[in-house]
Amino acid sequence: MAALSACGDWVVSTCDSKLIAVHTEQAGEPFVFDCSAAEKKPKDTESDSKGDDGGAEETGSDQILAVAVSSSGRLVALTDDSKRIVLFHCGSPWQCISTRWAVRRCSSLVFSQAEDQVLVADKSGDVYSFSVGEPQRAGELRLGHLSMLLALTTSPDNRFVISADRDEKIRVSHLKSPHNIQAFCLGHREFVSCLLIPAAHPDWLLSGSGDGTVILWQYESGRELQRWDIRDLREAPSITQEEQEKRSAISRITSSPDGRHVAVQCERAPTVYTHTQDGWQCDAETAALNPVTEAIKPYWETRQPLAAVESHYQHLYKVNFGNMDSYMEKKRLRLEQQKKKSNNINNNNKKKKRRRSAGRTSETKEDRGEDRGEDRGEDRGEDRGEDRGEPQPSR
C-alpha cells in the first residue's frame, strides 16, 4: 500500500517494494530502499520451510504494506509482503539497523512513545513487539483479537496500546499488561482502517473507517464525542455521479504539530481540501512541496493507473444481505431448482421401475407359453398314439 510520512526534515514515501526518502531542505539524490533486493529469510530449520498453516512457504511479492515513524523522527520501520520487519535510522546518511521476520504478514506497525520497541499487528489479529535496543531479538506476542487487525497506536503517556480490527472494534489495552482491557470504542459500521491521537490532545482519539466516517473519542472511557461523514465532500462538482456511488474508506489521519489542524486521506477523493469559515475549499499547490513532488514523481508514475481503479480495502467490506426482495428472489430460484432436480430424480426412478416391471412380465409370459405348449403337445400326442395303437372292438 502506498504511504507518505514526515520524518524530521525528510519526506518518506512508498511505492510497491521501494521506500523513498527525500530531504526537504538539501538538494541531492533521494534515499531508496528496495525490498526486492533486501536480505532474504534464512532457512536453517524445517519450520522455516513451512508457511503459517504448516503447508509450503508462500512467496511474497516484497510489496511494502505499512510504514511507521517514531515520535522523535529518528527511526523508521517498515513491513512488507515477505513478512520482513526492517528498522532504519534516518539521517545523513540513512542506516538500516536490522531486518527481522514476522510470523504472519503484517497490516500495521507503530513505535512506542519511549521508542524502545516496535509494535506490529498481523492479519490473524495478533500484536508482536520487536525490540529497538536489541535489533536481532525475535518478536514477542503481546495481545490478540479474533479478527484481522488493521490499525495500531499508543497513547502519549505510553500507558495504552489501541488496536482496531475488521469487525468495527477499537480496543484500548494497557501496554504493560495487554490482557487488561481499559475500554472499547464502538460506533463504526465497517472496518476501522486508521487511528490517531492528535498532538496537544492526549486524551482524544480519531478513528477512520470503511463507512466513510471519522469519529472523535475519549478513548479511556470509550465515549464518542463527535462524528463527521467525509463522503459529503464527494458532492463537489469535480466528482462524477459514478464516483459518488462508490464506497470511500478513510485511509489515513494525521495532525499538525500544534494539534490545531487535522488532515484526512480518503479513497476516491483525489483533491486536497482545506477548511475555512466558508466551508471546504480546494487547496492550491505550494511552492515548498514542488521539489519533493518532482523527486517522488518518477516512482509513482507506474502506480497511478492502478491507484485510480483499485481499492486497497475492497476485500474488507462486509457482504450486505439487507435487500429482502433480492434475498427472496434468490431463495425462490433455489427452491425451484431443488424441486426440478427432485422431480427429475423421481421420474427417472419411475422409468427404471417400469422397465424392470416390463422385463419381469415378458419373462413370465414366455415361461407360461412354453409350459402350455409342452402340456398341450404331450397330451394330444399321447391321446392320438393311444387311440391308434389300441385295437377297436368289433361291432
Keywords:
395 residues; alpha+beta; Methylamine Dehydrogenase, Chain H; 2 domains; four-stranded antiparallel β-sheet; 4 helices; elongated
What does this structure look like?
Strand 13 (149-154) and strand 14 (160-165) form a beta hairpin. The model is unreliable at 45-49 and 305-309 (pLDDT under 50). 27% of the residues are buried. The chain is of the alpha+beta class. The protein has helices at residues 241-245, 290-300, 304-309, 324-389; strands at residues 3-7, 10-15, 18-23, 31-34, 64-69, 75-80, 84-89, 95-101, 106-111, 117-122, 126-131, 140-144, 149-154, 160-165, 169-174, 181-186, 192-196, 204-209, 213-218, 223-229, 250-255, 262-266, 273-276, 279-282. It starts with a strand and ends in a 6-residue tail after the last helix. The strands form 7 sheets. A 4-stranded antiparallel β-sheet has the order 1-2-3-4, with helices on one face. A 4-stranded antiparallel β-sheet has the order 5-6-7-8, with no helix packed on it. The protein has a 4-stranded antiparallel β-sheet with strand order 9-10-11-12, with no helix packed on it. The protein contains 4 helices and 24 strands.
